[in-house]
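Contributing new complexes? Match this layout with manganese (II) ion.
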Amino acid sequence: MNRRSLTVTIVGAGSTRTPALIGSLVNYKERFPLKKLILFDIDKSRIDVQEDYIRLTMEKYSPETELVFTDNEDEAYIGIDYAFVQMRVGGFEMRGYDEKNPLKYGIVGQETCGPGGFAYGMRSIKPMIHMVEKIRQYAPDAWILNYTNPAAIVGLALSKVFPHDDRILNMCDQPYSMIKSFAKILDVDMHDIEPRYFGLNHFGWFTRLYNSKTGEDMLPRLKNYLVDHEFKPFNAEQRDQSWLDTYKNVNKMMSFFPEYLPNTYLQYYFFGDEIAKASNPNYTRAEEAKAGREKQVLDICRKATEQQSLDDIPLLIGEVHGNMMVEVAESIAFDLKKVFIIMGVNKGRKIIPNMPEDALVEVAGELSKDGAKLYPYGEVKTFYKGLMENQHAYEKLTVEACLESNYQKALEALTLNRVIGGNPVDAKKVLDDLMEINKDFWYLK
Ligand code: G6P
Ligand code: MN
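Output block (do not edit by hand):
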């Protein structure tokens, strides 16, 4: 394969998902060659601990790539072709508050859904706007591939602030992860599954799973299987308990609404109360992920630093997040027109005619040198429309609350959010609490 090599910056490179992303990049290096890789994070200490592992890995597997580690944004964006964006504003510390504070009121605590997602969205919007402005100053044509959460809210905000910038793409790896899990059950290669899907981010449904070799829609077969088999992620052995419970709730949702296959994240909206009751307010996903993924990755990085070699150290691979990021960029860079589940604005109501024009919908679509081409889905049925319109109104009010520093809109947003259940007394309590905790990050008047 003879493909031109590219310059990529990873924004938020201090994430402990980065070493596995590096593994994906080196695995795909023939398909997506790298001239230069910039690892950028405003928190230098987070990069420092991973630097030796990353440097040794790149020297071993991709010595032709120039490597830059930096905490200077002016150095991070000059002349880049791609920005892979995975910043976490407020870090894991704030993720912990997002997950724990709503629980005080018996409301589900989650980093992207409900009040936790609201707080995280309010923290992320302005730094993301700043980043886009900076990137456009230094690299007007770069592709900005955003994985920063809550993608629904961040993506919607960017679509409002930069309405003509069609090189910003908001992506989520959850559908990818689910498709990989379907493929294992159906015993096919995940890349032979051509899905159809509709919804908003972390709020959608699979409607078809075409086998691109035979044309069969495999969804009916999968639905049959899931009637009496627990839905497990493809890598169940490596998953923490909370993720296994999450996948299992897909079975439960389908026992009520068997028509389509729901995204795992819908569990928080349907079963929020019981999830909140079963949660341990002293040990949420933030702690679980720290004790699991963070520890595993940081131990490996520390070992690499101590021995200054990769002896007895495995190459970490990003089976979901990392591979998807590279495949997405590859499809754009080399005009492959591969199908992914992607987000895009419902402009002209072309994708879902009975949803608002400004909704950031998520459907199947192709990625090519011209960017995202979302497949028109058609009208959604009343039940789904009701759910989605409510969710879109919540997302839109959240974005406006942030951009206008508007307390009233924030209160309206949270009152609409289904996990709160429509009671403004609860919404106000949670909002005031989150506002205090997030006072270094966001402000409402
Ligand atoms: C899925 C979602 C992402 C989210 C991640 C959290 O992949 O699509 O949006 O960031 O899960 O995973 P974690 O292991 O950090 O809880
Ligand atoms: Mn996601």
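Reviewers usually confirm one structural detail per submission. For this one: Residues 250 and 264 are 6 Å apart (CA to CA).
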